[in-house]
Amino acid sequence: AKQLVVLYASQTGTAQEIAKNIQAEAEQRGIQGRVASMNEFGFDSLTAAHPPVLIYVASSTGDGDAPDNSAKFYATLRRKSQPGGLLAGIAFTGFGLGDSNYTRYQYVPRAIKQRLLDLGAAQFYPVGEADEVDGIEEGVDKWLEGLWPALRKAVQPEGAAEMAGVPPLPRCRVRLVWRESGDGGAAAARPSEAGAPGGAELAYRDPDGQYSLEQPFWAPVLHLELDIAGSGMRYAPGDSVGVLPRNDPALVEALLRRLELDGEAVFDQQTGGGEHLLPHLRAPCSVRAALTGGVDLTGPPRKSLLRLLAEHCGEAGERAALLRLCSRDGRDDYGRQMVAGRPSLLQLLRQFPSCRPPLDALLDALPPLAPRMYSLSCSPLECPDKVQVAFTVVRYSTEQYGQHQGVATTWLHGLCEAIAAGAQPAAAAALRLPIFLRRGGAFGPPDSLETPLIMIGPGTGVTPFRGFLQHRRAQVAAAAAGGCVAGGTSSTKGPAWLYFGCRREDQDYLYREDLEGFQADGTLDRLHVAFSRAQAHKVYVQHLMQQHAAELHDMIARQGARVYLCGDGAGMARDVHACLASILQQQGGL
Ligand SMILES: Cc1cc2nc3c(=O)[nH]c(=O)nc-3n(C[C@H](O)[C@H](O)[C@H](O)COP(=O)(O)OP(=O)(O)OC[C@H]3O[C@@H](n4cnc5c(N)ncnc54)[C@H](O)[C@@H]3O)c2cc1C
To answer: Domain FAD-binding FR-type spans what residues (predicted)?
Structure first.
């Protein structure tokens, strides 16, 4: 890894000023470097450690003499006894200041360049010159234009430049305009929820404390009820509810510290054509609000984000490692470390401590924090003013980055914890959650009660079927009472079967009372539960289905049953589908 050193030989302060500006801009561009007068730095330091990338800015004084703060360095550099290859490995460029009214114009800067070349250093970008007579600033600005790409290459370690398939640096599309402190607006900034489709804020008003821990042994599964009375929301079984989550406040605070950002600072986005380029960040927005509710901080890092982070690493080795991760050559590493490891943005920034990305580019590169969907576990016929869901609190660890927790489920768990633990009644909690409804479409109970139902829902996959069965119970009751209920057209009902799966009967049997209740009152004809860990060999829903192959075949092939499958177990859907296909094949002689 090559370090940048910016040295000046300055009599009046002009060369010093230019050198400091170069170092500051380099840092802004993610290249860390040191700036010093030549004497301060010392000639010996040039050869002491790894050969640096050197930029010098020099002027002359008197009759072609070196300025005072560089005289010793200059004399040592010019010593005839210095061995030829002494400065081999050093990449350099420089800029000379002079006044062509003097006879020894550019004498010192040119002498420095010549000596560096004599001693084996390599010029990585042409040395520039400016004449006081024409104006120094103009000359400097022109020279600086070409410096940055050349400097970037010079500080890169060998091989990094040839890495195949490094994506281009994403262009930052936004400009943040900071508000004066006390200018207000931050309190009104509510990223995500205000911009959500059909977003609504709902008061939690249940008096009895309807949050409950279904089972505390394994990953907790929570049942959550939300009061939608007066919201105008109308739902059907099979619909799901979208929740706009919040990132963990501890993560946000740690990120603010790492990026040295003021969480209270409020910004607007510069509006190009009058439109917000990042609509998920409702400006004016505080930095804390943007990081809390606006952007995804924990999803697998995208390659464009890694490319951005690489650009802002001051340490060349870190930059090269990030470039590799987002390159075509580094595809396997990306899969292993980023996709399987799932580091959060904070973990990445800790892994690459020299990385200092600017906030505007970072907000542009991070994906919006997505709403999380939850299947409704109720029916509007039984719960017209509520929506109910059940969710597993996501916790897992990866080999590469340790413990992880799901964004939405951890947030919801935190909100409900005191209520679930009995420390606080739900009514007193006065929680308000931003939610919206999404239609289930074809995933809803059949129009006719006569149509046989086969429902397969292991784990939290059972939740929509609780809703289906509540609906069916209400329809049957209404039909029996001679009433007319939307969705129910017959009082002769077809068979309804449910396959549910969990680990153990006493641990994670979700909605047990409800399911057994549906069976007891005849809403459900058959309830089959696979307890995967109750015996030495694992038993899953498809194993039970195989045992009922002939009946299932009859229901599907002869009676026209509708088959529903819900759940997220790895490979579960594939295995159940294969099981059904084999049943139809065997039994139907296909
Ligand atoms: C239509 C629909 C209905 C849904 N209904 C329900 C429901 O009723 N109940 C329910 O609990 N969920 C349901 N989900 C899933 C739910 O939307 C969320 O994805 C889930 O709750 C996780 O959200 P989170 O923000 O807590 O986790 P996130 O922060 O999004 O993290 C979850 C991600 O972490 C990764 N991950 C999780 N476990 C591991 C592991 N062991 N190893 C490696 N990586 C892992 C996976 O990539 C996973 O996508 C539904 C999803 C959809 C689309």
So the answer is: 195-446
How far is residue 486's CA from residue 107's CA, in Å, rounded to a whole number? 95
Task: Give the per-residue pLDDT at 294.
Answer: 92
Cα separation, 116 vs 35, whole angstroms: 19
| Tally of residues, the chain | 590
pLDDT digits (tens, 9 = 90+) for 50-104: 778 999 999 998 889 999 999 999 999 999 888 877 887 789 999 999 998 888 9
- Give the DSSP letter of residue 370: P
Topology alike, domains 200-245+371-438 and 248-365: no
What is the model's pLDDT at position 571?
82
> Which protein residue has the closest C-alpha to ligand 1 atom 6?
374
Phi and psi, residue 374, nearest 5°:
-135, 130
Using CA positions, which residue lies closest to atom 48 of ligand 1? 406
Nearest CA to ligand 1 atom 29: 406
Q: Which of 191-200, 286-295, 445-454, 539-548 has the lowest mean pLDDT?
A: 191-200
For residue 10, the one-letter residue type is S
Distance of CA 577 to the CA centre of its chain: 33
Among candidate residues 56, 61, 45, 48, the one with its CA nearest the CA of residue 125: 56
Stated as kind and residue range, the H or E segment containing 416 is helix 407-420
**Residue 158 predicted with pLDDT over 70:** no
Instruction: Tell whether the model's pLDDT for residue 568 goes beyond 90.
Output: no
* Of the candidates 415, 274, 252, 233, the residue with the CA atom closest to the CA atom of residue 345: 252
Among the four given CATH numbers 3.40.1190.20, 3.40.50.200, 3.40.50.720, 3.40.50.80, the one describing domain 453-588: 3.40.50.80
Q: Is 407 in the pocket of ligand 1 (CB under 6 A)?
A: yes
Task: For residue 394, report the distance from its CA to the centre of ligand 1, in Å.
Answer: 7
